[in-house]
Specification:
The chain is α+β, with helices and mostly antiparallel strands and 164 residues long. The protein is built from 6 helices and 4 strands; from the N terminus they run ααββαααββα.
Length: 164
C-alpha cells in the first residue's frame, strides 16, 4: 500500500506574495491544448494526494476542462462558481481578493457589497493571465481548505510554466 504524498499545510501568504505569484505565472498564450494539459496536471496532483477536489478551467467564459475526483460533491462545483466569479470581477486570485480585504481589517463578505451566495473570496481560483492580453480565464480547485486549494493551483501552474 502506498501512502499519498501530502504537502505540509501552507501558511497564509501576504498580499505582496500573492501579487508576485500572479506576475510570475503570466503565460505567453493559453490554448485548448494548454487547458487540457493544465487540467490533467491538476488531476494527477490531486490523485497523488487522494484529494477530493473538483477542477475547472475556463477561457473567455467557455469551460475548457472540468473534473470531479472521488470524494468531491456538487457543493464543490458551487464553490468553483463563486470563487471563479471573484476572479472574473477583480482580475485577481480569489485568495488575493480576500487577503486584500483582511489587510484592511475587514472581510470580503462585510465590505464588498456582493452577494456571498454568488461570490466567495476564498482560495482556489486563479486568473489565467496572458502577456499582452490580461486575464483571459480562470483555473479553479475546490474541495480542500482554501490555502491548500490555492497552493495546488499555484503548484500546477509552476509545473506547467517550467521549461521542459
Amino acid at each position: 500500500m502506498t501512502t499519498p504524498t501530502t504537502p505540509t499545510a501552507p501558511t497564509a501568504p501576504t498580499v505582496a506574495e500573492l501579487e508576485e505569484q500572479e506576475r510570475r505565472l503570466t503565460l505567453p498564450r493559453f490554448t485548448y491544448e494548454d487547458a487540457w494539459r493544465l487540467g490533467t496536471l491538476l488531476v494527477e496532483l490531486a490523485r497523488e494526494r487522494e484529494a477530493p477536489v473538483a477542477i475547472d478551467i475556463r477561457r473567455s467564459g467557455q469551460q475548457l476542462f472540468h473534473a470531479a475526483l472521488p470524494g468531491s460533491t456538487p457543493d464543490n462545483d458551487a464553490w468553483i462558481d463563486r470563487k471563479r466569479r471573484v476572479v472574473e470581477r477583480y482580475a485577481a486570485s480569489s485568495l488575493l481578493v480576500g487577503t486584500r480585504f483582511r489587510a484592511k481589517n475587514t472581510t470580503f463578505e462585510d465590505s464588498s457589497r456582493l452577494d456571498p451566495d454568488t461570490y466567495a473570496a476564498h482560495g482556489g481560483a486563479f486568473p489565467i493571465t496572458v502577456t499582452g492580453a490580461g486575464v483571459i480565464g480562470t483555473v479553479v480547485v475546490s474541495g480542500l481548505p482554501q490555502l491548500e486549494d490555492h497552493a495546488m493551483v499555484v503548484e500546477a501552474l509552476e509545473r506547467f510554466t517550467a521549461p521542459s
